[in-house]
Amino acid sequence: ECRRAVREQVRRGADHIKLTATGGVLSNTSAGTEVQFFEDELEAIMDTAHSMGRKVTAHAHGKNGIDAALEAGVDSIEHGTYLDRESTRLFKRADAYLVPTLLAGQTVVEIAQSPDSFLTPPQREKSLQVGPQMLNMARTAHENGVNIAFGTDSGVSRHGDNAREFGLMVQAGMTPAEAIYAATVAGAANLGKSDDLGTLEPGKYGDLIAVDGNPLDDVDVLLDVDFVMK
User: Fold this and answer.
1) More confident site: 32 or 113
2) Distance of alpha carbon 23 from alpha carbon 35, whole angstroms
3) Choice among 92, 153, 218, 220 that is catalytic
4) Is 153 a catalytic residue?
5) pLDDT digits (tens, 9 = 90+) for 85-119
6) Of the listed 18, 92, 193, 204, which one is catalytic?
């Protein structure tokens, strides 16, 4: 069934395969945020996707689910909330990327703490457990040399606020230059698009933005984009 599901997504035109290796924060269940697939299921997903030329990313919060997906050959992990130093060794062994989605963690905490929160009790409980862990998670990954790519999980956060992720990355110990690298060079590499995107070189897409100020001095100037060239 896992193989069939991957083939069906590719038949429908999917460029990448994503799976929920663990439970989710905003899933309206009390099933937690730990591993949801058995080892043979994970391996079937990875093998089928890779045989069809597709990269695989895994939504994963709990350590057991993160580690299981990495051991099965996943290309990247979205969130990675409860990773530890052992997990970082698996990331490096697999040459996999972490997309820490710090803005998603910040957003669910803000929503859960609001007196007008629309979250159900299971969602609110998980938000307050998971969200506060994410800055330390990204710090651990960065300090241990994990490949980090920029991503926000927007839809959880508001579309258009994506650049808040830069400031959160810096809070987690990255330099502004490292955060920008994660959004450009590493972002393209994570998608398998380095031949077309990520750096300013002849033959690549030349999309540019301009801001009033130097983001290497204050990364939050990226919150106010003055010019876009496509």
Assistant:
1) 113
2) 7
3) 153
4) yes
5) 999 999 999 999 999 999 999 988 888 888 888 88
6) 18
